[in-house]
Design a protein that fits this description.
4 helices, mainly alpha, Small ribosomal subunit protein uS15c, uS15_NS1_RNA-bd_sf, globular, chloroplast, plastid, Helix Hairpins, Ribosomal_uS15_bac-type, 69% helix
């Protein structure tokens, strides 16, 4: 299995202080998404992991929507740091 190559954007002190912050949760979900994606490249028929990935993607999307409505500057900074695409508008 491939190790997580995502460099920590959030420092250790911030992790201890703000583990419930929206930015930390999005960072944590992003690292889980990358880990599951690399797993699914090796195991294409692992349907339970695919379901878990979709659930985590939905949670991260809801957090990003909340952050974009409440704190636009923090949202833009986080999107740039984690290299996440902007969602398509309907």
């Amino acid at each position: 299995m491939i190790k997580n190559s995502l460099i920590s954007v959030i420092t250790q002190e911030e992790k201890e202080e703000n583990s419930g912050s929206v930015e930390f949760q999005v960072f944590h979900f992003t690292s889980k998404i990358q880990r599951l994606t690399s797993h699914l490249e090796l195991h294409k028929r692992d349907f339970l992991s695919q379901r878990g990935l979709r659930i985590i993607l939905g949670k991260r999307q809801r957090l990003l929507t909340y952050l974009s409505k409440k704190k636009k500057v923090r949202y833009k900074k986080l999107m740039d740091q984690l290299y996440i695409r902007e969602p398509k508008n309907r």
